[in-house]
């Protein structure tokens, strides 16, 4: 699939040296793009869109289907007494042998069940152990960002302490690689930049490797699953009311807040600070993953919380225009759902990126209102006594740190892969109910990975650039276009002599690695196989897929897929915002099928079939999976290809997640029960 292919010498549609006017040849989208949100016209339209987005989030984070729940085996120790609350040290398992760590703050003198809050932090130095420098905290006092030296020095602790004093059981937990979360270090989880060849093994791999991405194993997914298991554990505490759980976090912690709240309805009230906007979407590796924001952005992802209460702040950072760009659209959606009073923005653009006292006060009021705490307003945060690192740290001589490092990383990912493989194996259909489940899970994942189905009848059109009468057939040179701004050079060979009355017949989309040139031999005549189809009354459509044929400026096809201009070698920075090249070629096949189905008049066809050979087998298999009954029969030669052999993240056949869901055989299976002729397999 990654072979270099000579540019065609066969019939052209465009003038020599002219490229298709295809939007995909323009700049790639990256995390610094513009991500507007347009609310739908009806509640029903939003519900359908929301279901699609939730599946996209779960697939992107490796949580579709959800991993087998590991018994947490939680350990709580090291009680510390403070004025009005207590603090305990907590660790428990998310995956077997992988620990979530943090501090549990509990209000004193309250009987349960109590409301609770899950508190996530951003990328501050030290994470849960953060202590600002004297210059920083003194400036916060001068500017009015903070009221007391203790909260200026320890703003993360100040938040947890105040929430406990408000009567909330508060779990302040570590993001991966921070504070006591030591098994995957911060340098890997958040600062990864260059590929690690020694972590690329087919039998043992690490994060950010080809094999990890083919299984959708990424730090965003690990962190999201840790958050979900933290929610599981918190909601099951005997003194917690599971119907009154809130979540808050700032910056990267706000990303965790709105993503977890989007996929899990147990979060009743949400407050992500200084993150939601139409601008920069999150710059860390822990905030990005393939497919995560393809066709969407943070404003729409936060909208998935509706109609639950959603409060936010903005600052003098990438959120500074949110009050006029993005937030009004959220207001319209909440109004559509009859919840206009459940979305709020406190713009604090005179402060830089923060979760300072002024921002926290907005959050305290929001939780007070929507968790019905009954506290007098405004809720004032008093001074507090911070914990030392020794008082806060989970690990000590009696509770030693668990194993970590690269060998542990390989072991963790292998265990996650085995669990996923077991779940997928159990989905093998044996009857009608299991077939429906297979289509829902594996077919749903393929739908997200490919990201498109057959286009609507009115969204594909074609311009006939030239038409020629040939010996026993007509040759139409076309530009097939769709509403997404894509333009495909194509040749349609119409069965039957020119001028003769034609009985509508079948048509075939011919998919190979060489595009439409593969319809012709060295002399420019149709190949024997194509002639046999024409003689049988079957028309044949050849298309230059993206970066085939007339998409090429030079004599060789690209042997690497494009990537955004980000120096960090992580697939999520490109494929979190753009479809993989392989998927885009599948889109082109789907557009070709849609074009044939819409033909009218003398060229009308009675049905469409699909042929994928000579490097086009896997593309045809994926298109067949997405086409449904729009394709009656498919003839596919896989040549034994497997996506697992993709050599690098920029391989043209690199398709994140496809190995997790069963590789080429799964694509073929999703196409059932359509007729299939198969070659290239044992």
Describe the structure.
The chain has 19 helices and 17 strands. It has about 675 residues and is an alpha/beta fold. It has a 9-stranded mixed sheet, with helices on both faces. An 8-stranded mixed sheet has the order 10-11-12-14-13-15-16-17. α19 links the parallel β16 and β17. The longest helix has 20 residues, at about 405-425. The model has no long low-confidence stretch (mean pLDDT about 95).
Could you give the topology of this structure?
Elements: H1 43-60, E1 75-82, E2 85-93, E3 99-107, E4 114-120, H2 134-143, H3 149-153, H4 155-165, E5 169-173, H5 186-189, H6 210-214, H7 219-235, E6 240-250, H8 252-263, E7 267-273, H9 298-303, E8 310-314, H10 327-336, E9 343-347, H11 357-370, H12 389-392, H13 406-425, H14 432-450, E10 460-470, E11 473-482, E12 487-495, E13 505-511, H15 528-535, E14 539-543, H16 572-575, H17 581-597, E15 605-612, H18 617-627, E16 633-637, H19 663-670, E17 675-679
Parallel strand pairs: 4-5, 4-6, 6-7, 7-8, 8-9, 13-14, 13-15, 15-16, 16-17
Antiparallel strand pairs: 1-2, 2-3, 3-5, 10-11, 11-12, 12-14
């Amino acid at each position: 699939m990654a072979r270099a292919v000579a540019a065609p010498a066969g019939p052209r549609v465009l003038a020599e040296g002219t490229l298709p006017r295809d939007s995909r040849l323009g700049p790639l989208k990256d995390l610094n793009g513009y991500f507007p949100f347009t609310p739908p016209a009806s509640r029903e339209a939003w519900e359908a869109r929301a279901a699609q987005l939730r599946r996209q989030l779960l697939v992107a984070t490796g949580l579709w289907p959800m991993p087998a729940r590991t018994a947490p085996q939680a350990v709580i120790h090291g009680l510390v007494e403070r004025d009005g609350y207590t603090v305990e040290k907590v660790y428990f398992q998310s995956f077997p042998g992988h620990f979530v760590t943090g501090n549990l703050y509990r209000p004193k003198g309250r009987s349960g069940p109590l409301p609770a809050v899950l508190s996530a932090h951003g990328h501050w130095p030290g994470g849960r152990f953060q202590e600002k420098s004297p210059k920083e905290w003194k400036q916060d006092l001068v500017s009015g960002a903070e009221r007391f030296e203790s909260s200026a020095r320890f703003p993360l602790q100040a938040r947890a302490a105040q929430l406990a004093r408000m009567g909330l059981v508060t779990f302040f937990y570590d993001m991966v690689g921070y504070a006591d979360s030591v098994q995957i270090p911060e340098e890997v989880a958040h600062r990864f930049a260059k590929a690690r060849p020694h972590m690329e093994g087919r039998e043992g791999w690490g994060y950010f490797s080809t094999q990890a991405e083919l299984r959708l194993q990424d730090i965003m997914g690990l962190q999201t699953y840790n958050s979900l298991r933290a929610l599981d554990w918190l909601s099951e505490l005997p003194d917690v009311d599971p119907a009154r759980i809130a979540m808050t976090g700032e910056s990267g912690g706000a990303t965790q807040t709105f993503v977890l709240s989007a996929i899990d309805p147990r979060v009743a009230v949400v407050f992500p600070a200084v993150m939601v906007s139409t601008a920069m979407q999150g710059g860390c590796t822990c905030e990005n993953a393939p497919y995560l924001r393809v066709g969407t952005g943070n404003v729409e992802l936060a909208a998935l919380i509706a109609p639950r209460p959603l409060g936010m702040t903005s600052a003098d950072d990438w959120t500074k225009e949110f009050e006029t760009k993005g937030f009004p659209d959220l207001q319209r959606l909440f109004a559509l759902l009859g919840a206009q009073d459940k979305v709020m923005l406190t713009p604090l653009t005179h402060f830089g990126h923060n979760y300072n006292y002024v921002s926290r006060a907005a959050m305290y009021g929001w939780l007070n209102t929507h968790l019905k705490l009954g506290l007098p307003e405004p809720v004032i945060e008093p001074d507090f006594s911070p914990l030392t690192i020794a008082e806060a740290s989970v690990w000590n001589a009696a509770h030693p740190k668990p194993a970590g490092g690269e060998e542990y990383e390989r072991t963790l990912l292998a265990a996650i892969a085995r669990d996923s493989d077991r779940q997928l194996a159990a989905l093998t259909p044996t009857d009608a109910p299991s077939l429906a489940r297979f289509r829902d899970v594996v077919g749903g994942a393929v739908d997200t990975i490919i990201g498109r189905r057959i286009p609507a009848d009115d969204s594909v059109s074609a311009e006939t650039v030239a038409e020629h009468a040939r010996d026993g057939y007509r040759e139409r040179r076309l530009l097939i276009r769709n509403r997404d701004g894509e333009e495909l050079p194509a040749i349609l060979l119409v069965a039957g002599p020119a001028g003769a009355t034609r009985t509508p017949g079948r048509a075939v989309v011919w998919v190979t690695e060489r595009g439409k040139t593969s319809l012709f031999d060295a002399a420019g005549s149709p190949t024997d196989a194509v002639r046999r189809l024409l003689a049988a009354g079957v028309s044949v459509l050849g298309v230059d897929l993206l970066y085939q044929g007339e998409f090429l400026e030079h004599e060789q096809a690209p042997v690497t897929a494009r990537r955004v201009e980000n120096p960090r070698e992580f697939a999520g920075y490109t494929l979190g915002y753009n479809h993989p090249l392989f998927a885009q070629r599948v889109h082109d096949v789907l557009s070709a099928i849609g074009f044939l189905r819409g033909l009218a008049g003398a060229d009308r066809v009675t049905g469409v079939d699909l042929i994928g050979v000579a490097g086009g087998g896997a593309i045809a298999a994926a298109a067949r999976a997405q086409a449904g009954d729009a394709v009656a029969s498919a003839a596919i030669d896989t040549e034994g290809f497997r996506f697992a052999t993709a050599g690098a993240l920029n391989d043209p056949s690199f398709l994140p997640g496809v190995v997790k869901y069963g590789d080429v055989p799964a694509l073929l299976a999703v196409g059932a029960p359509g007729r299939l002729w198969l070659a290239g397999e044992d």
